[in-house]
Amino acid sequence: MLIVRHTTERVIPTHALPAGQTFDEEYYYRRLQHYLRPAMRHKRRRLLQNNVPIVLYDNARCHVTSNVTRLLRRWQ
What is the pTM of this model? Predict the structure, then answer.
């Protein structure tokens, strides 16, 4: 599975899910916390205006778990 994130201008970090890895709450949480936000801070500072990124996602189970929603609220 290829995970793609984008802005209105272009694709930013892409990531291939390792073979045998399940895209679950824990995996998604770690990617947000340890990769996406630091990558945005480093590569796309203006997307973090007021230090709050806009994250759009569907309502897949791993996207709306309590741990993930708490993490996204802390970004506000």
Answer: 0.59
Residue 47: how many CB atoms within 10 A of its CB? Answer: 15
The residues near 28 (Cβ < 8 Å, ≥ 6 apart) are 62, 63, 68
Tokens of 25: 């709450």
pLDDT, tens digit, 9 for 90 and up, residues 40-63: 777 666 666 665 556 666 667 777
Q: Cα(34)–Cα(61) distance, rounded to whole angstroms?
A: 20
pLDDT at residue 44, as a whole number: 65
DSSP string spanning the chain? -EEEEE-SS-EEEEEEPPTT----HHHHHHHIIIIIHHHHHHH-GGGGGGG---------GGGSSHHHHHHHHHT-
pLDDT at residue 2 in the model? 61
